[in-house]
Amino acid sequence: MLILRHQDGSKIASPEQMQVWMKQTMDWIGSIAAQNKYVGGNGLLFNGANVVTRKKDKITVINGPFGDIKETLGGYMIVKADSIEEAIEFAKGSPVLQGEGNSVEVRQIAHRDGTR
User: Fold this and answer.
1) What is the total count of domains within the chain?
2) How does strand 2-6 pair with strand 103-106?
3) Using the 8-state DSSP alphabet, how is residue 95 labeled?
4) Is residue 116 part of a domain?
């Protein structure tokens, strides 16, 4: 799984920047799909997002994904990689990495029985 993180989710791209970024993203996903390695994924919307936290015995709901931190999850993608190294190579091509401080976290998905 590739988890797309934005360092500063409060920055809003112009419509023109979004159009360029979306084309780059679709091309990136298309290149992975062409290898029959793309399983699925989605972007995550900021509007209507909430964060639920627990501190001591108090549950708090914060409107918006930002809270006290700037880093936000922008989306995720599931790929069929033959190795963690292959998944890392897919991650290196992500247009998300064009943003300063942005990252793509590469994780294995556990099976229901806890195995890989």
Assistant:
1) 1
2) antiparallel
3) G
4) no
Residue ranges of the chain with pLDDT lower than 50? none
**How far apart are the C-alpha atoms of 45 and 80, rounded to whole Å?**
25
Q: What pLDDT, on a 0 to 100 scale, did the predictor assign at position 6? A: 83
pLDDT of residue 111: 79
Instruction: Give the domain CATH number at 70.
Output: 3.30.70.1060
Q: Amino acid identity, residue 62?
A: I
The two three-digit tokens of residue 92, written as one number: 């290196």
Domain range for 56: 2-106
What the block records as the tokens of 19 is 């159009």
Neighbouring CB atoms inside 10 A of 91's CB total: 20
Residue 13's beta-bridge partner residues? none
Q: Which two tokens stand for residue 10?
A: 């409060």
90 exposure class (CB count in 10 Å sphere: 0-12, 13-18, 19+): buried
H or E segment at 77? Answer: strand 72-79
pLDDT at position 101: 87
Q: What is residue 116's predicted lDDT score, i.e. its pLDDT? A: 64
